[in-house]
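Late entry, written up from scratch paper. The run itself happened at the end of the previous shift, but nothing got recorded in the book at the time, so transcribing now.
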Amino acid sequence: MKTVNDFNLTSVISYPQRSKYGSNTWEGNMDGREFESLIHYTGAKKIVEVFGGSGTGYDVCQSLGIKNSVHLDLNPDFGDLYQGPNYEYTGKIGGWNALRDDLPVSGADLVFSHPPYHSMKIYSGNMWGESHPDDLSRCASYEEFIHKLNIVNAKIFSSLKRNGRHAILIGDMKIKGKYYSLIKDMAYYGDLESHMVKVQHNANSYKSKYNGKFIPIMHEHLLVFKKGAIWAIPITAVSRTVKNLKDSKVATWRDLVRSALESIGGPAPLNQLYELLAESSKAQNNAHYKEKIRQTLQLYSDFSSVSRGVWCLDYTDTRVA
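Output as recorded:
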């Protein structure tokens, strides 16, 4: 019996040399061998690819002699033009809208998707044709992108047969110094069966030089979700909540005093610190909070006395380079 390793699948995937699949001139083109290995591993016979790009997935299926595969893309020149859900399709189909159109295949063993990574690479109006409002690479905001990606992923999961799988290849990105983890922010539909990290050997972020500090992103994520039940849709979604440190039950007096001085931005008299921290949870539960603030200032080397009743942060030993 063959094992996972016979298909070159481990939790880390690395292909230093490009494969024969797809076009090496197509920005964001995947290697294809991860798709090939998944087909072997799952034994999939009925396959759908969403976001077909340069035709990498199609090339893989052709190479393996798989006839029952459909490859979809918004680009109308990608293949035969999509005619609606009531047609039998095979091969490459262009003009298929992932947001508005139904998947023309139901009950697939494996659906593979490689969506745009928000605006990292623009496709419609750049790589092909004219700008399209439903191109995920043209979303006006990151939040809009995640919302639309969730719609597509939910649609894919619903179309799977029982024990079918959705494999999605997706990366992280950085915009204006802020890191965005797409796999953290998108909703998960189905049971996460495997999470593989794919090493990127020719990433632009590695070749480019940037001002300031920048850790190049040299990986992508290949997530495999399995549909274990017919009717149940397991959904895991991230909820982001912002709380005030003053309301925290785990923040220490040291945390609060340091944060107060940071927010002031310089030396501060005790009265200003009292006023700033008076509404904190700790102060509300301590009638002697002023004494506690003074004790904290005197106890820790983080704080220095500038003059009588005036304090500042001491960065001598704690400043981060």
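The two ends are 54 Å apart (CA to CA).
(Scratch paper discarded after transcription.)
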